[in-house]
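discrete fold record:
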Amino acid sequence: MLKLEVPVGEFVELPFMLAFGPVRVYATVRQRNAFRYGFRFIASHSAHKVIQATCPWLSVTQSLGRVR
């Protein structure tokens, strides 16, 4: 969900923070329903590395939280 309107076909930059650092991904808006959007992401090696490092950490962290 986005807080602003973005037209279909627009190229966007989507920055966010993960446990292993900031990530900045780029995408094209493919579909829109109110403030919900579908994106076609453009490959980014640096973003992929951070996301790849974060996913196993999140999996372990979430599974430990369920055990308690």
The first strand starts at residue 11 and ends at 18. The beta strands are 11-18, 21-33, 36-42.
